[in-house]
Sequence to fold (380 residues):
Amino acid sequence: MTDTLDPRIRRADLEHAPASGGLAQNEHWEPFAVFHQAKRGEEHSFVGIVHAPDPELALAFAKEQFGRRKKTVNLWVVRSSDIYTFQHMDDDMFATAPEKNYRDASGYPVRKRINKYLEELKAIQHTEH
Amino acid sequence: MSEAIKDLLYHMADDELVIGHRNSEWTGLGPILEEDIAFSSIAQDQIGHALANYTLLNEQFGEAIPDVIAFSRDEKQFHSSQFVELPIGDYAFSLMRHFLFDHAESLRYAMLSESSFAPLAALAKKIKGELKYHTLHADLWIKKLGTGTEESQARMQSALNEAFPYALGMFEPAKYDDELKSENIFEGETALQTKWLETIMPILERANLQLPKLSIKERMYGGRQGYHTEYLQPLLDEMTEVYRLDPAATW
Fold:
């Protein structure tokens, strides 16, 4: 793995991948969650799982399993065991969220104001030319 | 000049078709699902590269259509190296062959991307990314197994010992090499072999594997002149079994 300027991301340096982790690592493969990115700048979406002994091979497998048909610019792999989640029984914490529509941004009449601004902008550009 | 380019294209395409077929023999039998899919995709890519070169032979030089070239010649007419026709062996051997072959292929196309024969330069640029994946996949496995356990290291080393004399057969010089070089079409097999050795040696070293010491006589040449091992004709018989039922059938 190489460190990047962005501390949130580790890009696999496949040429200088560390040596094999020995028998334990090679015999007990782990699931890795795969996240697919269709276009640079877009979000990575979870698409499925590959089994691999290390992140480098997980990427190599993910490339063919999830990048061989649809348009792909990049993939992430994350050890499934590094993903933290709530207990199923705790889903009642979310139960009343759909009722709280006052939290939706949809109530704000922003669109009108944007359109008005755009029109003003157009008028200014028009007079400039 | 066209004889020289045709000879080069046949050599490349036949190597790609035969190794593509061999590697596809692992489909459904790969050691694990993920690897099965990856290795099968690589085999498909190889057959795709063969098709691209047979298509150039057809479109640029008036040879038969790709299906006819691929499926209706016998072993004597194949210009592939003996290396690619060897049986798949165990997975160690198939991975080692994949490593040795795909580095040669990748470097060959890198050289051809500067070729004065424009259609080949264009093909080289188009498949660059595919070949990058092939060598990446091979390098990861070589390193993983070479530095894994005592057994995995021993099996990779023995696969390398077995494969290496045949691998050198990929660089069997052609009688047209000087001509291709002077016309800036291709630098030649000897130049390619030198680049190949420079590329694979550090990777093998990091993987705790050693190239066997060989005398020049031990290189397995002959494939390019149509001299093959006992393994090629049965492969062709199997590959063309359906085609031969009705060569004029359309799909």
User: Anything to note?
Assistant: The mean pLDDT of chain A is 85. The longest helix of chain A spans residues 110-128. Chain A is about 30% helix and 20% strand. Chain A touches chain B at residues 14-15, 17, 19-20, 22-23, 26, 29, 50-54, 56-57, 60-61, 63-65, 68 (CB under 8 Å).
